[in-house]
Amino acid sequence: MKREDLLHGGAHKTNQVLGQALLAKRMGKHEIIAETGAGQHGVATALACALLGLKCRVYMGAKDVERQSPNVFRMRLMGATVIPVHSGSATLKDACNEALRDWSASYETAHYLLGTAAGPHPFPTIVREFQRIIGEETKNQILAREGRLPDAVIACVGGGSNAIGMFADFIEEESVRLIGIEPAGKGIHTHQHGAPLKHGKTGIFFGMKAPLMQDEHGQVEESYSVSAGLDFPSVGPQHAYLNAIGRAEYESITDDEALDAFQALARNEGIIPALESSHALAHAIKMAYAEPDKEQLLVVNLSGRGDKDIFTVHKLLEDKGAL
């Protein structure tokens, strides 16, 4: 596992937030606007703003405010203003819309610190370059430890920042499979999922052309995932390209499979992963079980820790009678 959960702030988000916050200061901006789903990007943004003396306001879907209350408290504790968004599905896509709306009216003094590798240019490129340290460290560490490159690197995909950070340094290494995991939610057949790469259609959303969950009239459909950070109806254009050329593979994992992986890691390793990361972990477990006699060197990006998810998981397991 690539332990991005050990990063200050609890997730991979801190990598690129520090870079963008320093960029904002260089540009003479005094305020930071951000959106967040699981709250990890919001926490990372709040800590960077506290460190650098910048005002911070974070837009967050009202549903996510409720299911990620520990991170909401962390943001406010570090001085950020958290603004719940009640419009639409009250999740990440609506928070993105409100953040963009705010920025369009305040760009002279504010920088929009986008949290994922999506949105209008140059944001996907900025985020990838600040996150590619994940793949660089992985490559150096695996070569030092195993003496060879991994057979596959696996990461969850919502907007796609942790995955593109992991993939970037391996794209030219054709022997390494790049596997991104989208949320299948309650099952692809139920239409309650967040897997636009494999089950969406090309559309325009959030200032980009990318796969999008939409109905026959081109209206954006609501996405769904037990993990707030993957509850997004589109995906970054770089992932769309890697999928189109066949360089990366994209699979999906259901809520139940992610919950099983969440518990398995906690019980076997004493590590509580984020629900987002649990999707990638679940697929790695499936790969290992599918070919038990095959020696495979797999690296899973453990993109964040699961402290924020313990109340959600507790309720889900309690409802299932699994506690």
From TrEMBL:
Reaction(s) this enzyme catalyzes, per UniProt: (1S,2R)-1-C-(indol-3-yl)glycerol 3-phosphate + L-serine = D-glyceraldehyde 3-phosphate + L-tryptophan + H2O
Native source organism of the sequence: Vibrio cholerae
Function: The beta subunit is responsible for the synthesis of L-tryptophan from indole and L-serine.
Entry keyword set: Amino-acid biosynthesis, Aromatic amino acid biosynthesis, Lyase, Pyridoxal phosphate, Tryptophan biosynthesis
Annotated positions of the N6-(pyridoxal phosphate)lysine modification: K13
Family: Belongs to the TrpB family.
Matching InterPro entries: Trp_synth_b_CS, Trp_synth_beta, Trp_synth_beta/beta-like, TrpB-like_PALP, TrpB-like_PALP_sf
Molecular function GO terms recorded: carbon-sulfur lyase activity; tryptophan synthase activity
UniProt subunit comment: Tetramer of two alpha and two beta chains.
Cofactor(s) needed: pyridoxal 5'-phosphate
Name under which the protein is recorded: Tryptophan synthase beta chain
EC number: 4.2.1.20
Any one Gene Ontology cellular component term annotated for this protein: cytoplasm
Pathway: Amino-acid biosynthesis; L-tryptophan biosynthesis; L-tryptophan from chorismate: step 5/5
Occurrences of domain Tryptophan synthase beta chain-like PALP (ranges): 2-302
